[in-house]
């Protein structure tokens, strides 16, 4: 109020004042505005700026963290893809090796079967040849009695078996030398 009384020293009649010329109230309001502005700039604005800067720093840190997380995520995805490709290649290799092993085992089994077949065939041939030799020798051993019996029937008289056996042995020996 002190200011208000100082500003009203000159009074003029209503309607005679110039509105462009400031009166005392304007100066008082200007001073109060500047004081309030100074108080805000001195005590209120620095803590607000500090809070705003802290918030900006926190947001910057969060953005950097998000960017790092995104980059790490992309690195992990690339690593995952690389590991999957390696695993696929390894699986293909294992399958190929297994197929080749199966083919080798099949071929070895076929070869062993063929070898066993050949061996059994050779044994069978040897047994057959031995049986033929045995049968021949048995027939040769008995041919004299068969021939003597046949000759006796044809001739109608008795044939000397010892003499006839000597003739047969001689014929067999001659046939063995030729064949």
What does this protein look like?
The radius of gyration is 66 Å and the shape is rod-shaped. It contains three helices and no strands. Residues 1-9 have low confidence and may be disordered. The protein is an all-alpha fold. The chain has one domain.
Q: Could you give a quick summary of the protein structure above?
A:
The protein has helices at residues 2-7, 24-155, 161-178. With 179 residues, the chain is mainly alpha-helical. It has one domain.
Instruction: Tell me the series of helices and strands, N- to C-terminal.
Output: HHH
Total number of strands: 0
Shape: rod-shaped
- Approximately how much beta-strand content do the residues carry? under 5%
Question: What share of residues is helical?
Answer: over 70%
Q: How is the biggest beta sheet arranged? A: none
Give the termini distance in whole angstroms: 161 Å
Secondary-structure topology with pairs:
Blueprint: H1 2-7, H2 24-155, H3 161-178
Helix pairs in contact: 2-3
